[in-house]
Amino acid sequence: MCSTRPSWLLLATATPRTVIIHRARVASAQDLLLRGTLETALVDRGGLIGQMRFDPLFHFPGFPTMDIDEPHGGHGFGHLMKKIPATARGHIVAVVGEAVGTFCFLFFAFTGTQSANVASNPNTGDTVITTTPQKNPAQLLYISLAFGFSLAVNAWVYFRISGGLFNPAVTLGMMLIQAITPVRAALLFIAQMVGAIVAAYVVQALFTGGLNVSTTLSDTTTVAQGVIIEMLLTMQLVFTIFMLAAEKHTGNFIAPVGIGLSLFIAELTGVFWTGGSLNPARSFAPDVALASFSSDQWVYWVGPFAGSILAVLLFKLVKSLEYDTANPDPEAALPPAGGPVNDGPRESMNPGRSSDSDATAMKH
Description:
The protein is built from 10 helices and 4 strands; from the N terminus they run ββββαααααααααα. It is of the alpha+beta class. This is Aquaporin. It is a multi-pass membrane protein.
């Protein structure tokens, strides 16, 4: 940052259990001499964080969001938001981001599913048929790609805002490993359900032929089989999220790609047999839009939630065995690529820490 105008500087000095913030005014960022015991955040005169600077010799895993008084006052929506306590503001940002992110994820996934179903029928003239008596491999592949790619892209976009969970089963898992608080989990659950339902209504209104994106068991799949299939597929997805996103490493920034691919292979396996839900919101939303609930709707709640719990148990097992000692990563001590993020969104991807903690102190 090569600004020559006066800037506000935050100096963070560490004790074994707390981080104490000091604020000073400096003439230029070039005047700073960073030491191994300092962590700084340059703040422009409008009071917004312009750049975070970290000395490579010293790193705080979770640098808290600070409430900074604007030197010259401020106006507009951003100024009003800064008057809200940091914890509440973090919840607001996460809820809005999660609702919009879930909508985007499922809008494109539902649209891809609708398109695959329509294209698999001999549509003539103004007649559009979405029902498919018998699914074909190309149709199943198209649907799987739509879900996998939509999750990868939107998780990449929104994971710094809300965590990019988009799934109540994933939210449950993140809460159980203490990556998010119960309060944040409840708020994200509501946001996910709202985003999913809105996505289903929009797809229903936008495309002709009737909404046909509901998840149903195949004629040869029993309820017990459906629950187990959904449980195992969800366990794979949630455990992938734990290892690629919740665990801190230098590859965190590319985690959404692996997460999207995990959903893709799960969909390839499950679409034919159960519809490949892995997500209660994904199965509930179309039924709300159609005002018609199937008798096996509960399968898409029990299966994914059970799978999430299994993923938590597996994650705790490998953590208790200190899996990282089996194949040490020489870069494990480095800060995650991509830089620091806002404390609200970071909560969704940081096991053992919650944004409900004091904004001026941090467990070390």
